[in-house]
Design a protein that fits this description.
alpha/beta, Rossmann fold, 6 strands, globular
């Protein structure tokens, strides 16, 4: 097989091969502070994810999952958009639930996210949301397909999270050996 010379412009650096995967911040974003969003984005940069996705829940979904009222979707989405502009973030705001305009089960949302964004898939969750996710019957199926990054160390741990301890870690702490390079 013949080799052909390739020319590149001066200063060209090949793209980083170690950047891959998607980190999805799945939350209602009702009480999420700017420093929490920055912490999630910093985690995405440190772990070298190619995509950082913010997935705000529709108010019907939040009402069923969290058992608490939240602001309308468009208000929380506008707040995320202004945060993105203010901090010059390259995060993607996924508006799948805005298009559906109704309750979206977590399974449906995760199926959509894993189909749309490149693998490997990581979910960035608060400890409360992680415990809620672990309480669902489909948790065992999903934990085999994706990994979790918790925003902080949980005070109370769901038994299924404890059982699958090797599939999640805490942001800001040293990740497990098998997930250091995503």
């Amino acid at each position: 097989m013949k080799r052909s010379p390739v020319t590149v412009p001066f200063g060209y650096e090949p793209p980083d091969e170690h950047v891959k995967g998607t980190l999805v911040f799945y939350d209602a974003f009702e009480d999420t502070a700017d420093h929490e969003l920055l912490g999630a984005e910093k985690t995405a940069e440190e772990r070298r994810f190619s995509r950082f996705v913010l997935y705000p829940l529709h108010e019907e979904t939040a009402k069923r999952m969290l058992k608490a009222p939240v602001a309308p979707f468009y208000k929380r989405e506008r707040r995320l958009e202004s945060w993105k502009l203010e901090h010059r973030s390259e995060a993607v705001i996924e508006v799948f639930e805005a298009k559906r305009k109704k309750y979206t089960p977590m399974d449906t949302a995760l199926r959509h996210l894993t189909d749309k964004y490149p693998a490997p898939h990581f979910l960035y969750l608060t400890p409360d949301m992680a415990n809620l996710f672990a309480s669902y019957s489909s948790f065992r199926e999903w934990i085999a397909k994706l990994r979790l990054i918790l925003s902080e160390r949980p005070k109370r741990l769901h038994p299924r999270l404890e059982e699958h301890r090797n599939r999640w870690d805490v942001a800001g702490e040293e990740p497990a050996d098998d997930i250091k390079d995503v």
